[in-house]
Amino acid sequence: MSVRRLAPDHVQPASFAFDAANENWADQQIAKYPAGRQASAVIPLLWKAQEQHQGWVPRAAIEAVARKLDMAPMRVMEIATFYTMFNLQPVGEHFIQLCGTTPCALRGAEALKKVCEDVIGPQSTVSADGKLSWLEVECLGACCNAPMAQINFDYYEDLTPDNFRALLDDLRHGRPTKPGPQNDRSCSEPLGGGETLKDPALYDGTVIGAGDWQKRIAEQRKAAAEAAAAKVAAEAAAKAAEATPAAVESKPASETAAASRPKPSAPSQPSSAANDTPAAGGKVEKAAVAEAAKPAAPAKAEAAPVAESQPELLTAARGGKGDDLELIWGVGPKLVKMLNAMGVWHFDQIASWKAEELAWVDARLTGFKGRATRDDWISQAKKLATGWRPESALGDKPVK
Ligand code: FES
């Protein structure tokens, strides 16, 4: 255990003051505590002082922190001398904390100490070039990779006198180093890799009889969502037929599906079709059905259902590259995938849609129905098609 004393007077600076950025940072820390409790910020402020003063805390910094926190200097001194995270002596550019506790000692820490003495000198002294200093410390919690050392903020483990000597040489000459185990093992696995729990079947559910459960669940969800969407579309078509029988007669039912949703007074129930879906095995995902069949906000009494009409779609992006549809507010990667699969790749396609075409697309945005109308995609796409770009990659939120 090292002796916790202040550095001798001849290395102590005459004064210490936080620089402007650190002063501001310190004020923010102090402001976290209630009035009269500013002393609670003493550890962060000492840490910041150490960081600013080449890795160690001089007497002047302890006094400056005491003044800043309106504390007796002795109170701050007690803290600085108690916690070993504060260095009271100058340290090298690379400060080596070598673990000397039992597991590391049993695995060769004594030999590493000799390397330090040989390469750097006695502990708590800085090498002549200012690059290295070292200190023996208590367990650093990496005993499974003993022996080890912490150098600045990184752990170096599985050290031997040879690789440790080479490591110190690399640090001294500014060559890149690799923190972690120095013997090529991964973390604390055995040398040569893990020896247990290697069967991939342990991680895909087959061991507990789940089989290809991810695929099965995805199929169940898809079937349930399609069944629910079909029911909503059928109900909407029936309503539209009641309202305008002549129009319905002239078009196939699928093209007259209204964009409006069932009113709250007659909420949709999960369809029997969904429950009967073979893939669902009679137990469809309730959440998916509920989401797809969820009643929308009550439509205005006078709002007429909007007929659907399929817009012009592409089989592939023009020039092999679609526009960045995520620049439309509310459109994320899932919706882009859905739109591309539908045949929508470009802003000018969306900008050219009529209300019926918007309704057609909206009705097919599984899980996002109504989003295209709600976020006024047509207006957004018209702006984007001119070459205008929003400040945020999320797009510009439409003003309602
Ligand atoms: S004994 Fe050295 S890290 Fe625990």
From TrEMBL:
Reactions this protein catalyses: a quinone + NADH + 5 H(+)(in) = a quinol + NAD(+) + 4 H(+)(out)
Gene Ontology molecular function: any one: inorganic cation transmembrane transporter activity
Source superkingdom: Bacteria
CDD domains, A to Z: TRX_Fd_NuoE
rRNA processing as UniProt keyword: no
Any one Gene Ontology BP term: inorganic cation transmembrane transport
Chain spans, region Disordered: 171-199, 242-287
Record carries keyword Iron-sulfur: yes
UniProt keywords, alphabetically: 2Fe-2S, Iron, Iron-sulfur, Metal-binding, NAD, Translocase
Biased composition (Low complexity): 257-282
Reported cofactor(s): [2Fe-2S] cluster
One annotated Gene Ontology cellular component of this protein: organelle membrane
Family: Belongs to the complex I 24 kDa subunit family.
Name assigned to this protein: NADH dehydrogenase subunit E
Species whose genome carries this gene: Bosea psychrotolerans
Lineage start: Bacteria, Pseudomonadati, Pseudomonadota, Alphaproteobacteria, Hyphomicrobiales
